[in-house]
User: Fold this.
Amino acid sequence: MQEQVAVAPCPDYVYSHVIKGVMDALQPLGGMKAFVHKGDRVLIKPNLLIAKRPDRCVTTNPAVVKAVVHLVRETGGIPAIGDSPAVGGLRRVAAQAGIAAVAQECDCPLVEFKEVVRVTTGKDYTFRRFELAKAVLDADVVINLPKVKTHSMMLLTLGVKNIFGCVPGMRKAQWHLRAGVDHASFAGMLVELCRLVNPALTIADGIMGMEGEGPGSGDPRHLGLLVASGNPYALDIAICRIIGAPMDKVPTIQAAQQRGFAGADPKQIKVVGHRIKNGEIAPFRLPTRFDAQWNLPGFVKKSLKHVFVPKPVIKGDLCKVCMACAEVCPPQAIAVADKKIGIDYRSCIRCYCCQEVCPEGAVRLRAGWIARFSS
Assistant:
């Protein structure tokens, strides 16, 4: 069975263009009515990583969220908008990102993921327990609205990675601690979490994406596209093709393929809608990283992380000592000394959460010495 991924052009965030673009992306898939029925409680899950203005391209643009709220309502669904930002709280992040204004204008609830439910999975899962926001489990339909961005740990954050926001607050840090420097293990958790949440529809905001040092400190990049699918794994693969990213370097795609998930086989994906010509979109500039782990056992990676795995460093001229990095650090490896941020690299697990949330772009990645030697 082929999984369909629909692509629609959209030049900018003018609302009339966005609503048309979303409708054009959904049309080959059967429209919003194929995913939402009258009376359905619909949770709309954008990417609300940190408090940044829409023009910084860190978060899902409010025009895309507004369009989806409108179409859900038009179909008879009951929409709500929810996420669990890395730092800053939902209200503050949503206000800065323009999502709170959309919620107010559309009289749509903004749901903070505070209540938690423990979920036990089946024997066909590697990860047997998850803690999810109750609002996610209470919804009849989850609509996933990722931003097309690079990611220093997972190479890209697209449909699958965006679902990690369904894990509330600092519980996300616990998953980082469990995985440590083993990015494959963390990716395995992400794809199984996505399978558990099972978003009915994913619409990626690729009108303006982010390349370079994403997901929080990269550079805006115009793509002019909206990409939609009922299958987030297929959507991620299709976007990799569009932006010229190597699928074999994206840990979540590899994890989904290893598990045989539907939509993870590129041969079973059919891209419909707008046809992108060869050379129409130049390849994305990917984040600085060095995958010199060569399938080594986890205990070797852990003991030799300074050799193989890039480490975060603080650029003192940019750092404002706001402590966002320390707040989000899973192993609490970051502290202030002499009015400067310091990182204990013996405790650092190379999850790069500090780089994700730094509002000043002051956290950069420096390759291990093998990477520097080989380059």
The domain at 298-374 is CATH 3.30.70.20 (Alpha-Beta Plaits). The chain has a mean pLDDT of 92.
